[in-house]
Amino acid sequence: MRTLIAGNWKMNGSRAMLAELDRIAEAASAYSDVDVAIAPPFTLLGEAQPHAGRVWIGGQDCHRAAQGAHTGCISAGMLVEMGARFVICGHSERRAEFGETDPLIRAKAEAAQAAGLIAIVCIGEDEHERDEGRAVEVVACELDGSVPPASTPENLVVSYEPAWAIGTGRIPTFDQICEIHSMIRAKLIQLFGEAGVRIRILYGGSVNAGNAASILACPHVNGALIGGASLTADQFVPIVEIAANVSQ
Question: Choosing from 51, 63, 91, 181, which is the catalytic residue?
Fold first, then answer.
């Protein structure tokens, strides 16, 4: 299974940051065994394409509807028209800041898949749920509720991102990551049969060049969804290089 290293620029980025994308794309060309992706802000989607090379460009969110009176929103079809290949659905910041629920996230992912995009569906517990010992239960429930039932390995990626580890520098232990990713794999097989073996599962939460090797070595970790460390080539490219070495 090919490793996927995806960067989420969140609400960061100006035209000047396209120079970073140039450097990321140049480096990615040397690691053809790894899929590399960047989700810039919507304002840069169109301009990012000529800089991307073999790097996938995608959206950070989309609406569940194909069109309509939804001021300020972006449809999956609009993303496709801008050259997007994927879209992130249900990032923990969307769940926390905008109250997005599992059914809404599933609807967004279904809209993305219907438009021809890969849906990167995010799931993960918060700190309170982890401390209560309910992480496995919460993540399993979110997976059941958020993933479209007609998904395939070609149009679905699942990203486990414990909300308490995002941007904090804290990460779960190796055993904790393995436990959750093994559970997700088992659930995907339960939901999709043999196809569930081939759906990529990413880890997201304070991934950097210092911890990427150990995280990517966990069973059923097929890549990473990276926030802050994706904003510069100096931080992001070493993670891609590590992924290439781990996958060999």
Answer: 91
The total of structural domains in the chain comes to 1
Prediction pTM value? 0.97
Confidence of residue 248 (pLDDT cuts 50, 70, 90): low
138 vs 141: CA distance, rounded Å: 5
Catalytic residue flag (residue 128): no
CATH value at residue 185: 3.20.20.70
161 catalytic per annotation: yes
pLDDT reported for residue 178: 95
- Note the pLDDT tens digit of each residue in 97-107: 999 999 999 99
Cβ neighbours of 209 (radius 10 Å): 16
Q: Is the dihedral of CA 103, 145, 119, 111 positive or negative?
A: negative
